[in-house]
Amino acid sequence: MATKILPFYQRRHKHYGYDYRSLDSRSLVKKYSSKSSSSKRSSSALETSSGIFHSAKFSPCAKRVCHCFEDEVPEYTVPAFRNREGEEEQAKPKARTFLYGTKLWKMEAEIARLRRSAHERTDMLALRRMEEERTSVQRHVREDSICRAPEFLVRLRSHTVWEKSFVKLFCTVQGFPTPLVRWYKDDVYIDQTSEPAKNRMDSYYGVHSLEINRCNINDTAQYTALAFNIHGEATSSATVIVKRFRGEEEPYHSVLLPLNLPLLSPPIFTHIDIQYSEKFGVSFGTEGETMILSCRMILTPNLSRLQPEAVWYRDDVEIKKSKWAAMFYNDCTATLTLPHLNKDDEGLYTLRLITRGGISQHSAYIFVRDADALVVGAPGAPMDVTFYDANKDYVILTWKPPNVTKESPVIGYFVDRCEAGTDNWIQCNDAPVKICKYPVTGLFEGRSYIFRVRAVNNSGISRPSRATDAVTALDPADLARLQTFYFDESRHIIVSQDDLEGDVKPPGIPTNVHVAETSKNYIVLSWDPPEPRGRDPLKYYIEKTMAGSTSWQRVNQEIAARSPRFAIFDLVEEKSYEFRVYAVNKFGLSQPSESTGPVVVKERIAIPSPPSDVRAARNTKHSVVVHWMASKTASELIGYYVDSCLLGTNDWQPCNHRPVKYTRFVVHGLKNGLKYIFRVKTANALGVSEVSQESEPIIVQAALRGGIPHAAPSSPYGITLLDCTNDSMTLGWKIPRFTGGSDITGYYMDHREVTDLHWHESNVKQIIGRVYKVENLKEGSFYEFKVSAQNLGGIGIPSDSSRAFKCEAWTMSEPGPTYDLTFCEIRNTSLVILWKAPIFTGSSPVTGYTVDICETSSEEWRTVTEKPVSTRYLKVTKLEKGKSYMFRVHAVNAAGQGMPSEPSEPVLIQARPGTKEITADVDAEGNIYLNFECHELTDVSHFAWGKAYEEITHSSKVHIETEGEKSKLIFKHPDMSDLGTYSVAVSDTDGISSSYVLEKEELERLMALSHEIRHPTIPLKNELSYEVFDRGQVRFWLQAESVSPNATCKFIVNDLELADSKDHKITFDKSTGMIEMVMEQFTSKNEGTYTVQIEDGRAKKQSSLVFIGEAFKTALAEAEFQRKEFLRKQGPHFAEYLHWHVTEDCEVELMCKVANTKKETVFGWYKDFVAVVPEEPPNPQTGDSKLRIPEFSKKDMGEYKMTLKDDKGQDITVLDVAGKVYEEIVQEISKISGLSASELKIKCTPEGIRLQSFLMYYMEDMKVFWYHKESKIASSEKMRIGGSSEQVWMQICEPTDREKGKYTMEIFDGKTSYKRHLDLSGEAYAEAYTEFQRLKAAAFAEKNRGKVLGGLPDVVTIMEGKTLSLTSTVFGDPSPEVTWLKNDKDLELNDHHIATVEQGKYASLTIKGVTTEDSGKYGINVRNKYGGETIDVTVSVYKHGEEIPAVKRGVQPPPVHSTPPPAEAPKPAAPPKSSKIGRRK
User: Fold this and answer.
1) Is the pLDDT of residue 218 over 70?
2) Cα–Cα nearest to 1254, from 1246, 1244, 1263, 1243
3) Whole-model pTM?
C-alpha cells in the first residue's frame, strides 16, 4: 500500500512556500515530485531536451535543463539537502558554460542518493503501519471475546387488556458493557417523571419491564424497548390494545339485541388475531346525505391469502350490496357507504370479521333524522315499505308510521305506484288510508311495479318514503303448475298442468273462500282456484250480501278479478256481510262458492296503550339509557318511539326515527351537564299511541366508573421525608388523583432497605391521614417507601417506590421541607399553589415561605416571591400558556431558608375548556351569595368551599346550599369581616376549582343591591323632569315602569302638598305610569324643591327635582322667553333669525325671513348701530331679506342688526359676525376657494421663484399651508407665503438645488383639505432658475444705480443776499458721481457756487450771496456704472422789501439758512423735507 510522505515543512508549518530554498533545489524537488519524472523519464529525455528547450525553465545555477510543468501536482515532495561545500561553491561566481561533464555526474549522484533516502523512509513508514494494523486486529480479537452489542434473548410480546386494568411488558437483554434500556410509545420517549403513577420501569439482572397502570384507550400504541451500549443498539416492539368494557362509548348495547348471532360455516385457515385501530362510532345523519362507516384493523399475522371475510349487518340482518349500500374491504380497512340516507337505514350497524377463531365484531348505532319538510308542519316520511301476497293484479303493502313530536298527528297515508323503468308515479288511493297497510289492486299481469308511501296531516303531505324493490304481478301458484321433463343433459321440456288438463267446460267451483284481511275500510277475500282449472285463463266475480239476507250483489261487475285475491272497499263499518265467488272462463260461469259466513267490518286491532314506568339511567357524557315497561295492549306491535326534552323548555325532540321493539334504548347526542326528561310512544299498524308519563329528570353525565359501582383508588404519589430521628422517619404523600367513586378510608405503607429485595409492612391499622411516622428503623440505613390507598372498592395499586432516604437525625436550625404541594385554578397564565407547613420547624418557628419555579425544559430554578409570604398559598401569574412548570416551596425561620419541598409534578399551564368562575350576586330575597357551577360532576362529587383556602365546615357567618350542578355560599349577615378570598373545589373531577376575591367596593355594591331587593322601590322609566311649553307654561312629569290600579301619588313643593287646581293641573295615568303637573304661571315665587311620592302596596318611590339657583333661573328664563316669543309672533316678527350664507362667488350674504308684515312695516339694517342700505329690499311674498358683503374680510366684522316695526309691534334680530361666526364664514370661503383653486404655476421674480394658484377669493385668515416633499413650510425670509384677492403664492427666495422637488399647496376648510401639486425639478426648475437669474440681475442694477433718495424740494424761494444751501441724500453702489446743473447745463463751481459730498451720501450745493441772476432751474445728476437720475429744483430769488412769491400748493418753502459774517465759513444745511419726489431721468 502506497504511503504519502509529507515533507518536514508541511508537518511543522501551516503556511509554507518555496522562498527559503535555492533555485536549483526547487528545480530538483519539482522534477522528482512529478509523476512523469518518477516513472517515464529516461536517458532519451536528455537527448531530446534540445527539441523542447524553449518550453523548459532554466535555473541560473543549474548545470542541467529541468523540465517543470506548472499544472503537475506532486504526490509527495522530497526536500533538497545541501552540504556546506555546495553552499560555498554556490557563492562563488561561475562562468556561463554548457560543459556538463563533471557537474552533471555530481548532480546525478546527488539525485540517486536522495532517491534511496526517500525509498528507505517510505519502507520504514510502511512497516510501522503494518505493525500497527496487526496490533489493532489482535486487540479487537481479544475484546470481541468479552464485548458485544446488545441482544434480546426474550423479546416483547403484544397484549390485549381491559380498560382500567394494568399490563406489564417484559424483555431480557444481554451485552457487554451492560446495555441501558429506554422505553418508547409510538416512537415517543416515555418520561416516567411526567406521570409518576402511570408508568413504572424496572430492571433486574438483565430483565427489563414496563408496567402501565390504569390502562385507558389512549394507551393503545406500539411500545418499543431500545437497548444500547458503546457497541451498538437493538430494539424490540410489541403492541398493546386496550379494550373498553362493553364497547367504546356504550356500557350497554344501543338496543338490547340478541347476541346469539347466526354464524356462517367456519372457514378452515390459520388463526388471525384482529385488533381495531380505528372504529366507527355513534353517528348522526339526515335523509338525503351520504354516510361512510369504516373500520381499520391490525391483523396478526397479515397474510394476503388469508384475509377475514367482512360482513355488515343492520339490526342483525345482513346488508346486501345494492344502490342503497356499497361494501368495500381492502388493506385491512372495511368500509360501508350509504349514498342516500333514509330512515330505513337507521339502526344498529355491526361489522363482523369471520376468522378461524370465530367472529370479531364492532357495533354502533346510526341515527337518521327527517329531511326538512316540503311544507312547514308536514310530518316525516313513512319507512320500511314492504309488500307481500303479490298476485296477478293485486299486492298488499305495509309500512311503519313516522315519529311525530311537534307536528300535528298523522291522519292518513297516500300510496303511489310506478311501473319499473319509468318515472310516472300514480296515486293508488283517493282518500288517505288510516292504517299502515293497504291492498293495491288494478295491476297488470306480468308487469313490474315499485311503490312508495306519503304521510298526511293537517299541515300537508310529507316527503315520499324510500321506494320498494320491484315486484312482478304474477300468480305464485302458476309456477307450481309447471313440470319439467329431462331427456338428457342438454334437452328438457317444460309442460304446464293447464295443458295437461285440457278444456274445462264450464270451470269448477272456487273453494276455501275466506277473509284474509279485515279493516274498517276494506276486506280482502282469498280463495283457491277450482280443480281442475283447465288451460283457459280463469277470472272471478265476487258477490256480497248483508248477513241474513238472500239478496246478492255483484261487487266487480265491470272488471273481473284475475287472481284469487280481491280487496272489497265501500263497506259499512260494524255491519255484517257474507261473500261468495264465481269462476268464469270462455266456456261459461261456474256455480257460486260456499258463503264465507257472516263477516263484521271492523278493525281487528286497536290503537296501543302507551308504555309505563319510563326510567332513565346515566351512561356516558352524552348518552342516557332509557328503560320502560312494554305496552299492555299492543297487538301487531311495530315498535317504540322515544322523545327527549330539555327540562323546562317543553321542546320535545325525537330520539329515534325508526321504531325499536326493545324496552331499553340508549339515547345519544345529549349535552353534558344538562337535565333531560324522556317519554315513550307505542306504534302499530293502526298508528301511534298516546305519550307515556315523563321520566324523572336526569343530568347527563358519565356513569360512575363506566357502570361499576365502586373501584379501587389510584396510587398516591409524591412521598416526601418530613422529619427524621435516629430510628424513625416521618413521611407525607399526596392524595390519589382518582378516588374510585368513594371516599378514601385509609392508607397502607410498606418500606424496605435499599439492599433488601423484600418489602415490609409499616403499619397494621390503616393510616387515616397522609402523614405517618415509621419507627424502629436502623440509624444510618437507607430506606425506600411505597403507599397504597383504600376505599370501599378495595386497596388500590401501590405508588412508585420513593427515592432512598437516610435514617439520621435532623439537627439543623432551618426548618424542614414543606409537603403536599397541590394546585388549583389552573388558567392560561396563572395557577394557585397550596402546601402544608413543615413538620420539622428547626430552632425557631416558621415565619414565611418562598416559592421556586422551573420550566420542565430547563434545570434553572428561580424564586417567584420577592419576599417570604405568610400564607400557605400563592397565586403565581405571568406564566406562558402551553408550557409546563415545576414548583417547590421553602419554609423560612429566623435561622434562614429551610430545605425545599420535593419538586412538584409538571403542571401544564392551560385552562380547561368551558372553565367556570365564581360569580357574586343577590337572589330574589336579597341574600348575597357566591355561585359556582360544574357540569362534570360524578355521583360522589361534592363542592368544598373555603376562605383563604381553608375549608369552611361550620360557620355562623355563611351557609352552603348545593343543588345539582350548582353550589351557593350564602352570607347570613354580611359585613366588612366577610372580605377576603373565597375558593371552591369539586372533588372527583380533574381539578375543577375557582376562587373569588370579595373586595370592599364589591361588597358595598352587593349590600346596596340587597337593600333594594329587601326594601322594594317602584322602578321609574324617567325621573322627575320638566319642560316649558310655547306659552310659558311649565310641565313637571315622571313615568314609572308599571303600577297597579291601586297606586297613589303626591306632589310636594317646598314641603307643601299640592292639590289638583286651575293653577296646578295634576294627572296620574296608571295604565302608562305617567304623572304630570302643569303650572300655568311660572314666576320667581315657584323656586324650591319639587318632589313626587308614589306608593303601590309595599313598594315606594320618591323622585325630587331641585329648582334652586341657576337651574331655576334657567327654567324661569326659558318660560319668560317662550311667553315673549308667543307675544312676539302676534305682530311682525322674524320667522328665521339673521344668519349667513356664502355664495359661489365667495360673497357673504346675511339673510333672514320675516313674517306677519304689511306695507306699513318699516325695515332697517344696521352695522355697529350705523344704518346700512341693502341692495335689494325684502321680498314681501317669501319674506326673504338679505344684505350682501362682496369682499369679506376682517373689516366686515361687527354686529349686524335688522329691525321690524309697525302698529302691531316690533322685532329685532342680531348677528355678531365675530369669533366663531367669523371663523365659520372663513371656513366656508376656504371650501369654495379650495374647490376653485387652479393648479400651481411658476412665476419668476428678481427675488426668486414664485409658485402661485388662482382661486375664487383669498383672504388672510384662510388656512393655507405649503409643503415641500411632505414637509410643512413656514413663512420665512427664504420661503415667503402670501396672496392677493384672487391668488395665493409662495416665494422661494434665492433658490438652490435643495429647493427642488414636489410642492403642495393645501387649503383647509376645517374638515377637508384641497391640495394642488407642482413638481419643481428637472426642466421646469432649470427654466425657472434661468429666468430668475435674469430678473435678479436687472433688479440688482436697478437697486445699485445712482439715485437721489430725497432732501430737495420742487421750488425754493429766497431773498437776495442770503446764502442758499441745497442738500440731498444720494445712493449708489459703487458710489455715484454727483454733478450739479443749472438750466440743464453743468454748473461751474467757484467761490460763489460750492459743491460738496460728505460721507459719500450727502451732496450739497451752497450759493453764497444769492442774486436775482441765481434764479433758475437747478438739477443734481447722480450716476454710476449701473445708471443714474437727475432731480430738478426751481430757485426763485426776490429782493428785499418785495412780496414773497406764492409757493405752489403742496410744496412748503425750504428753510433758508442765514449767512453768517464773511469771516466764518457757512455749515451745510440739513436736508430739506419735501412731500413729493422730483422727476427722474
Assistant:
1) yes
2) 1243
3) 0.41
